[in-house]
Specification:
With about 300 residues, the chain is α/β, with parallel strands linked by helices. It is built from 11 helices and 11 strands. Helix 1 runs antiparallel to helix 4, helix 7 crosses helix 9 and helix 10 packs across helix 11. The termini are far apart. Its EC number is 3.6.1.1.
């Protein structure tokens, strides 16, 4: 039986890593030979999760060989996918994002749902197949949901996410789900433990528009005021990405989880489009966005509409 790899997107977040691991377990229970992989480095939040549940990180695969059978989780855009996907044999996609324009030669299985996290979909796949999740897999899935929804603060959160997380917390034996989630999110608040370059590349996704390539990264913080001291370094890192040809417009969401506000830093061109998407910039050039927590729901859609207009 030919081996199939399962991988999330480049610059993987907790959902991307945990979904690859969890779907690999599910597929194995269903008699399929698959291997979990990752298309980038493990970030501090995900490292906390893997260490807590004593699970090894997936193998790093930076490029897939021609004809390699592959399943994508937590993304469906070529610009975010592992290198070589265009020549690989894409057989399946499990995701919760917008459609990103991948074209395939052969039919494939696609399961996409408008929920807050890929892990929510995978929990339901396990339920539908009458699978009893082990504690560590339930823990990974609960962690992914808590991460992607910012423990249900994000507007991407649905009732399905809450139901799945509640069931998963019980299976995993998490006595205080909120305390665990906040500890995990605190571990991921890496603005002082990572370099500015690492932050701007860490949880970053690429989007191709007619006016050029746009990168959107995000870092969560617990104290937005304290994080301001890092802004000049972050701004320089964003400008370096533009100067180096990585993007035409580079954005970084500095998201204060506690105060529920995002300060959107940026570099490059297309300010007129950013103004159209997010309103007038502050005096220093950044965008102050109260109640904005989600890249998927509150940054990418208005940005896409503004680029179209």
């Amino acid at each position: 039986m030919e081996n199939i790899i399962i991988t999330g997107h480049k610059n993987p977040d907790t959902d991307s890593i945990c979904s690859a691991l969890s779907y690999t377990w599910i597929k194995g229970q269903l008699g399929e030979k698959v291997t979990a992989c990752r298309a980038g480095n493990v970030n501090p939040e995900t490292r906390f999760v893997l260490d807590y549940w004593k699970v090894d990180a997936p193998a790093l695969v930076e490029k897939v060989e021609e004809g390699q059978k592959i399943i994508l989780v937590d993304h469906n855009e070529m610009s975010q996918a592992v290198d070589g996907l265009d020549k690989a044999d894409l057989v399946e996609i499990i995701d919760h994002h917008r459609l990103g324009g991948i074209v395939t030669s052969n039919p494939l299985f696609v399961r996409m749902q408008p929920v807050g996290c890929t892990a929510t979909i995978l929990y339901n796949v396990a339920v539908e197949n009458n699978l009893t999740l082990p504690k560590e897999i339930a823990g990974l899935l609960f962690s992914a949901i808590s991460s992607d929804t910012l423990y249900f603060k994000s507007p991407t959160t649905t009732e399905k996410d809450k139901e799945a997380a509640g069931a998963l917390a019980k299976i995993a034996g998490i006595a205080d789900p909120q305390a665990y989630a906040l500890e995990m999110l605190q571990a991921g608040s890496a603005i002082n433990s990572m370099t500015a370059e690492e932050i701007c590349h860490g949880d970053m996704k690429e989007f191709d528009f007619p006016q050029g390539k746009v990168t959107v990264a995000q870092v969560n913080v617990m104290n937005g005021e304290a994080a301001k001291a890092k802004w000049p370094e972050l701004q320089k890192a964003l400008q370096a990405m533009v100067d180096g040809g990585e993007a035409d417009t580079s954005l970084l969401m500095v998201t204060d989880i506690m105060d529920e506000v995002t300060e959107l830093l940026w570099a490059g061109k297309n300010q007129d489009i950013l103004d159209k998407a997010f309103g007038k910039a502050e005096a220093d050039g950044h965008y102050h966005l109260p109640k904005v927590l989600s890249r998927k729901k509150q940054i990418v859609p208005p940005l896409t509409d503004a680029f179209k207009g």
